[in-house]
Sequence to fold (281 residues):
Amino acid sequence: MKIYKLPTGTLLQHEKQSFLGPELDWDNLLAMEDLKDYLSNEANSWKKISGEEMESTLAKGILAPMGNQEIWAAGVTYFRSRTARMEESQDAGGADFYDKVYNADRPELFFKATASRVSAPGAAVNIREDSSWDVPEPELTLVVSPSGKIQGYTCGNDMSSRSIEGENPLYLPQAKVYAGCAAIGPCIYLTEESIEETANIRLEIFRDDVLAFVGETALTQLKRKPQELAEWLFRANTFPIGCFLMTGTGIVPDDFTLEVGDKVRIGIDQVGVLENYIEKI
Fold:
């Protein structure tokens, strides 16, 4: 099942059928512990639409599938990320931090964004004016209920300034948290089963409509299980309307920095494709 947030309604794909429903309160929606069952029942009273109508509706624009939930993120959960972070922070003397957290029991978890800092699919995400090295980070993003249950998944773009974090690991909040620092979407993939570990994550970056970078990884490379990350996040913390948790990236472009006008495309098997373009703030 997939649910999309529309500017004036909701679109649901379920069992190869599509349903158009009213605007929903996404704070209340994602606070439910039985979200998939609730939407299955609700769809019975929604308007059934054809595949063509569904495509036409989505083409008119969609919003980030969230209310006022917080977005958190996990770092150094892939070996590729560990290596990249060690390299970029070598001169600052912080390389050992990343090696140690990769092997530690406790993962790196940090606050990423409030809803006001999150961009919709198709909208702009930002790079910082005071940064010289910027990359998108494609991440499987968990949709977690108030009790800590993983109810679904979405695509996440954890925008990152590698130059700021590389200068000093204590600058992580400035490298990660700013206006337009994240995007999620295009939908929430709701499932009672864990996403397949063989699912691929793909990143494509286009410059002047030409493919400038491409990378791919699989969830088999994720060192920590999604449920493990969610359980750590909920230690000594509460999320009354649920939350989102980005699970880290296994694709880190080297010798590449984003420029204004670039288009970023993130695809995750079973979930969908998230596209955004780049602006500077």
